[in-house]
Amino acid sequence: MTNRKIIHIDADAFYASVEMRERPELANQAIAVGGRPEGRGVIATCNYTARKFGVRSAMSSAHALRLCPDLVFIAPNFALYKQVSKQMHEIFQRFTEEIEPLSLDEAYLDVSECSLYQGSATRIAHAIRDAIKRELRLSVSAGIAPNKFLAKIASDWNKPDGQFVIPPSEVDTFVRALPVNKINGVGKVTTQKLKALGIETCQDIRDSDPQQLIKRFGKQGHRLIALSYGLDDRPVQVSRIRKSLSVEHTYDADLNSRDGLIAKLPALLEELDQRLKKSGTKAPIHKRFVKVKFNDFSQTTLEQMISEGKHYASTQEWYEAMLLEAWDRRKLPARLLGLGVRFDQSHHKTMGAQLDLFESKAKG
Ligand code: DCP
Ligand code: MG
Q: Ligand 1: which residue has its CA nearest to atom 7?
């Protein structure tokens, strides 16, 4: 995997830019996409005009309004952002199949094998940004580097509407001077801990005792040392994103009654739980579903958004109600029962919590 060419693309003020595109009269105003300041709302993002006032993602809307009294609040339109994200991916696909989406507005592309523009990743990145600007009227920034770690840092370097390349020959110089807090996963706490050890840049990591770092930070210590030399061999993973997970069981004897059905639920739930834990999927669950196959081999499924659901005391009660509702459709002996969940992959990890705030809805 020597000399790979990785591009990291990240749209500028994504939700806000889409809204400004839809409503050009907003272009010169400070805008934020998120919840209203009257409630407990938070901001998903804001445009660069608002950022000048200190407004930031994940800030409470009320606080944002205090920083920027003229801030215009816009309710999010996720369906539209998803659609735009898909259009961006269609543009990426003209250049490579090796695409790893990180969120709606962010992706890694491995263009090592792309022969367009004589294989120049810098020019490919330019062409992608150009196409997105012309066709979607949005600006994105790009980072070009030999690996994912550096490409992601580089896309931030000349943001917004810019790109930055770290060619292999410049990796060493670049990374030596890099402050540790630019490393993905090194937040405020780790930065402070490192600072206490006299470590502020990647050069400092190189100069410190590796055994001590590993003792202190464990696995992260190993990672920090590798990154401080600009080394990162994680491949661009063309992810088959897991959209759902389910378990089902065919019974030796058909289930004839409501009680018979319900008796099977705990074991199925336990199995679903195990599978969920094993999958390590972090995306929030937004739907649950059940499946019942009858002894005439017909089957029925029923699914429900968690946010739309009636509120039950427990997950078990929820599935119980759904199973019975599904069974009641035919009331024939059942030979198979299944349970499952669907994941919401569309937003940042923090979005689950934020969505609740936008909608002021309790989660089931
Ligand atoms: N987002 C969110 N909550 C967060 C962070 C982001 O809902 N805490 C949403 C809104 C953003 C989108 O995800 O528009 C993309 O996130 P980015 O971190 O890439 O932020 P932006 O694209 O808004 O701005 P930037 O120009 O800094 O990339
Ligand atoms: Mg972005």
A: 44
